[in-house]
Amino acid sequence: MLAKRIIPCLDVRDGKVVKGVQFRNHEIVGDIVPLAQRYAEAGADELVFYDITASSDGRVVDKSWVRRIAEVIDIPFCVAGGIKTVADAGKILEMGADKISVNSPALLRPELISELRDTFGQQCVVVGIDSFFDVASGQYQVYQFTGDESRTQKTRWLTSDWVKQVQQLGAGEIVLNCMNQDGVRSGYDIAQLSAIRAICQVPLIASGGAGAIEHFSQVFQQADVDGALAASVFHKAVIEIADLKTQLIAEGIAIRPYT
Amino acid sequence: MTDLVIVDTGCANISSVYCAFQRLGYEALISNETSIIQGASRVVVPGVGSAGQAMRNIRQLELVDTLQQLQQPVLGICLGMQMLTSHSMEGDVACLSLIPGEVVPLQADGLRLPHMGWNTLHSIQAHPLLKQFGPEDYVYFVHSFGVAPNEYSLAQCNYGTDFSAVIGKGNVAGAQFHPERSGKVGARLLQNFMEWKP
């Protein structure tokens, strides 16, 4: 049976892993390669590296760390951030990443998703979506340039419309980052994820809000997501992946056991 | 003689496969030259992307005959495995016909595609490549096409329907999953391949 995936996310800035609260006030957590190796050995099913500086300041970002990760990691990993063209994506995949994830550049030029699908295959193409619940309108809206607080801005897309659009364009997987929950560890946004699950035919990964083991149980059992992504609870050792997996298996959720 | 050659099919997961063998202590040579591939003691055919594009690459490199005539152990990985079969419906292309079988769209019975993630194996045959494999082992899959179970299936996986997870005939074998990304279990398959004497 296909296992639900536990996916530590490492936000990368200038070659270091960082973490902020609600995308702000980033603090350095550690070096990329040893952290990646630690998570792979601890039972992570997949890793995501978000180069959070890349999309927002427009410079060419050194991605040589991708190759260093590929050398030591024996589980799949995805690289996000600053991928604007097929050529950008090709370099990262050549360095050994299994998937590439696009976010702001796809909002600026949606056909990028189709170009990536046609060149590398749908299975490589992950679309990250930063979704914020706007209390005034009562709707979930897509934001871009979320790596840089000063440039973060609302787009014209409602989250549900963008989810449908990216699937038509060729997304092979969607990571839905619920910004209201990010870094505050009060649980995944089950209501939003369930609503998006209903219109998402490709694998859906929940992001934002994990703070306790029961949050993972809830998101798998109630929102039927394919994977759950988390950062701070793993970086700060609030949750050990082995304990998390043992508990989820005990609850009857399909999980690859920690071995 | 170079011990292990990874065929440079122009696909994207070559460095992951290279690194996986390196972690096991095997330094592979990545090449698309006929003489080097022919002279290898073992050959790996990696692959990510679409079958049509991959077969075009192989034809342009004039590697079809070379790959079809290999007598040493050959391992195809993911799309590389699919290219070992007779035909792929992904792009409607003739493949290398080293192992009879047809690559068809996965009939996932309503489950989400691509089939992406960790899944278990069943109907595991007694074969040197699958030494120490059991039904509790998880391996990593990413694909939307597959080979239906047939007499050359060495292990199967179920995702809505059964499909071939590992196939083999004579000196040629292939894995639909990604051993280079399947943790210790995947490394076991690669190690078994390095010790295989078909």
TrEMBL record, chain A:
Keywords: Amino-acid biosynthesis, Cytoplasm, Histidine biosynthesis, Lyase. HAMAP family: HisF. It catalyses: 5-[(5-phospho-1-deoxy-D-ribulos-1-ylimino)methylamino]-1-(5-phospho-beta-D-ribosyl)imidazole-4-carboxamide + L-glutamine = D-erythro-1-(imidazol-4-yl)glycerol 3-phosphate + 5-amino-1-(5-phospho-beta-D-ribosyl)imidazole-4-carboxamide + L-glutamate + H(+). The keyword Lyase applies. It is an enzyme of class 4 (lyase). The active site is at D11, D130. The gene is hisF. PANTHER family: IMIDAZOLE GLYCEROL PHOSPHATE SYNTHASE HISHF, IMIDAZOLE GLYCEROL PHOSPHATE SYNTHASE SUBUNIT HISF/H IGP SYNTHASE SUBUNIT HISF/H. InterPro entries: Aldolase_TIM, His_biosynth, HisF, IGPS_HisA/HisF, RibuloseP-bd_barrel. The keyword Cytoplasm applies. Its EC number is 4.3.2.10. It comes from the Bacteria. One of its GO terms (molecular function) is lyase activity. Pathway: Amino-acid biosynthesis; L-histidine biosynthesis; L-histidine from 5-phospho-alpha-D-ribose 1-diphosphate: step 5/9. It is found in: Cytoplasm. It comes from Alkalimonas collagenimarina. IGPS catalyzes the conversion of PRFAR and glutamine to IGP, AICAR and glutamate. The HisF subunit catalyzes the cyclization activity that produces IGP and AICAR from PRFAR using the ammonia provided by the HisH subunit. This is Imidazole glycerol phosphate synthase subunit HisF. Pfam families: His_biosynth. Heterodimer of HisH and HisF. Belongs to the HisA/HisF family.
UniProtKB/TrEMBL annotation, chain B:
One of its GO terms (molecular function) is lyase activity. It is found in: Cytoplasm. It catalyses: 5-[(5-phospho-1-deoxy-D-ribulos-1-ylimino)methylamino]-1-(5-phospho-beta-D-ribosyl)imidazole-4-carboxamide + L-glutamine = D-erythro-1-(imidazol-4-yl)glycerol 3-phosphate + 5-amino-1-(5-phospho-beta-D-ribosyl)imidazole-4-carboxamide + L-glutamate + H(+); L-glutamine + H2O = L-glutamate + NH4(+). The active site is at C78 (nucleophile), H178, E180. Its EC number is 4.3.2.10, 3.5.1.2. The keyword Lyase applies. PROSITE patterns: GATASE_TYPE_1. Its main location: cytoplasm. The keyword Amino-acid biosynthesis applies. Pathway: Amino-acid biosynthesis; L-histidine biosynthesis; L-histidine from 5-phospho-alpha-D-ribose 1-diphosphate: step 5/9. Residues 7-194 form the Glutamine amidotransferase domain. Keywords: Amino-acid biosynthesis, Cytoplasm, Glutamine amidotransferase, Histidine biosynthesis, Hydrolase, Lyase. HAMAP family: HisH (MF_00278). This is Imidazole glycerol phosphate synthase subunit HisH. It comes from Alkalimonas collagenimarina. The lineage of its organism: Bacteria, Pseudomonadati, Pseudomonadota, Gammaproteobacteria, Alkalimonas. The gene is hisH.
